[in-house]
């Protein structure tokens, strides 16, 4: 049974209060690695948003029109990953053709979107929470935009902090990055009383 959540509330909640990255900590590998550069972060954020929106919609269709009628629920993980891999492969070819510089700057992380746990997590949450097709599209788009917002914020903060002479040498690099991510997660959790979709 589908929850009666307004798709627009679901959209804004998935960006802020239920941010797939900062509330569930899914998709951290590429988030930490690519966020050193604003241009690459923006490109990856757009790619993740596009893949997340498209695959959530496609996986809803595949799950409700093929998997459930055929009684293949036990194969949903494999089928969801196949759909995600196909969409990522098409997107990778498009980015390579349209923007070779972005393609080179993203490097290995573009094909690794296939195994980005945030994208699979959104498809699984959509299925476990019994979202309708429209709710799933809004949830996928909102989750992608939330991921994009988080990586852009981290890239901007890291760029500013890297130039600061006040950062102790022992904190530079991964230590400070993890502290910043923790503070960002607490800041996003501050919105949790406004909208809740769990």
Gap between N and C termini, in Å? 15 Å
Average of per-residue pLDDT values: 88
**Structural class determined from secondary elements:** mainly alpha
CA-atom Rg in angstroms? 17 Å
Number of helices: 8
Low-confidence stretches: none
Q: How do the SSEs run, as a string of H and E?
A: HHHHHHHH
| Shape designation | globular
Helix content: 55-70%
Beta strand %: under 5%
Could you describe the 3D structure shown?
The protein has 8 helices and no strands. Helix 6 runs antiparallel to helix 7. The protein starts with 6 loop residues before the first helix and ends in a 9-residue tail after the last helix. It has 198 residues and is an all-alpha fold. The longest helix has 33 residues.
Short account of what is shown:
This protein is mostly helical and 198 residues long.
What are the main properties of this structure?
8 helices
Write the layout of secondary structure elements.
Elements (H helix, E strand, L loop, with lengths): L6 H9 L12 H7 L3 H33 L5 H23 L1 H7 L10 H12 L4 H30 L11 H16 L9
Helix pairs in contact: 1-7, 3-4, 3-6, 3-7, 4-5, 4-6, 6-7, 7-8
């Amino acid at each position: 049974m589908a929850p009666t959540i307004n798709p627009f509330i679901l959209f804004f909640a998935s960006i802020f209060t239920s941010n797939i990255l900062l509330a569930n900590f899914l998709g951290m590998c590429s988030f930490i690695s690519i966020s050193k550069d604003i241009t690459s972060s923006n490109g990856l954020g757009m790619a993740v948003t596009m893949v997340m929106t498209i695959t959530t919609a496609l996986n809803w269709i595949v799950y409700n029109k093929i998997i459930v009628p055929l009684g293949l629920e036990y194969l949903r993980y494999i089928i969801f990953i196949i759909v995600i891999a196909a969409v990522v492969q098409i997107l990778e070819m498009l980015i390579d053709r349209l923007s070779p510089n972005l393609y080179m700057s993203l490097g290995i992380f573009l094909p690794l979107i296939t195994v980005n746990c945030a994208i699979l997590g959104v498809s699984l949450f959509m299925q476990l929470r019994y979202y309708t097709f429209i709710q799933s599209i809004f949830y996928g788009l909102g989750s992608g935009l939330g991921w994009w917002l988080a990586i852009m914020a981290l890239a901007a903060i890291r760029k500013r902090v890297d130039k600061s002479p006040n950062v102790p040498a022992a904190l530079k690099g991964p230590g400070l990055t993890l502290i910043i991510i923790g503070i960002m997660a607490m800041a996003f959790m501050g919105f949790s009383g406004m909208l809740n979709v769990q």
